[in-house]
Design a protein that fits this description.
By secondary structure, the protein is α/β, with parallel strands linked by helices. It has 12 helices and 5 strands. Strands 2-1-3-4-5 form a 5-stranded parallel sheet, with helices on both faces. α4 packs across α12, α5 runs parallel beside α9 and α9 runs parallel beside α10.
Length: 263
């Protein structure tokens, strides 16, 4: 009887896991299919196309680039780490702070690189005192395909392509603005409590390490770690989709970034 009970519990646990995975896959598919495509699908603006120049008014300017973390997906208030970072910065200085948020759901590093060719955004880059970027999560996890097929060869291909794009992004930012401090948000592991946690965590840690190596090639450019923030209590800091941070998770990231920004 005891052995039968154990087998029954194991079966229920297996079914629950499959249901959870199915729900996660549906959530990710829904998230990517609903991503606002316009800002990343449009062709780069022509160099002679009119654009609105940024007015130099003495304010402290923060430019936020990247994916859904920059946009704030999963936060009921929609603030994301950028909003909580801004809250903390306002406590540190009375100077006016202007934030331009270009976060787009589902954005990949290649799409961000394309977006940076637009003169409108280039003007924002030139005027920024600080640039924060969350990019790479969609390259690694997009559609949940990587989670379902943890093929080391495929992951290496994805990682290498991302690192090339990241290097191009940082190079372009530095060409447009040599003085701004650039903060690249490292990846956390939203799947740390699943069965393959050792493998997925190793993938994310390796990804962050190599991204930090790329960032180190450029002056005043650093990777901001987030893996440790979610490592011990990941479920406490995830939104209902079990992928994006919730308000508490975003607050942790925002406060960490803000702690690195000085006047």
């Amino acid at each position: 009887m005891k052995e039968r009970s154990i087998q029954w519990l194991m079966a229920v646990s297996a079914v629950s896991f499959l249901v959870w995975m199915g729900g996660l896959a549906w959530t990710l598919q829904h998230y990517f299919s609903d991503a606002a495509p316009a800002p990343i699908a449009r062709a780069p603006a022509a160099q002679d196309e009119p654009y609105t120049p940024v007015v130099e008014d003495g304010s402290f300017r923060v430019l936020a680039l990247g994916d859904s973390l920059t946009r704030g997906t999963g936060d009921p208030e929609g603030k994301g780490y950028v909003g909580y970072m801004l809250d903390r910065l306002k406590e540190k200085s009375e100077q006016e702070i202007v934030v331009e948020n270009y976060g787009v759901n589902g954005q990949t590093s290649g799409q961000l690189a394309s977006l940076l060719r637009e003169r409108e955004l280039q003007a924002q880059v030139k005027a920024a005192d600080v640039i924060v970027i969350s990019i790479g999560g969609n390259d690694l996890f997009r559609g949940g395909e990587t989670l379902g097929h943890l093929d080391p060869v495929k992951i290496q291909e994805i990682e290498s392509a991302y690192l090339r794009e990241l290097d191009g992004i940082l190079k372009q930012l530095r060409e447009e603005n040599a003085a701004a401090r650039i903060f690249l948000i490292g990846l956390y592991n939203p799947f740390i409590e699943l069965q393959e946690t050792e493998i997925t965590s190793r993938i994310v840690r390796d990804w962050n390490y190599k991204a930090a190596e790329v960032a180190s090639r450029y002056p005043q450019t650093v990777l901001v770690p987030t893996f440790d923030l979610f490592q011990l209590k990941v479920q406490d800091y995830l939104a209902r989709d079990l992928f994006h941070p919730n308000a508490d998770g975003y607050r942790l990231i925002g406060e960490r970034v803000a702690s690195l920004i000085t006047w």
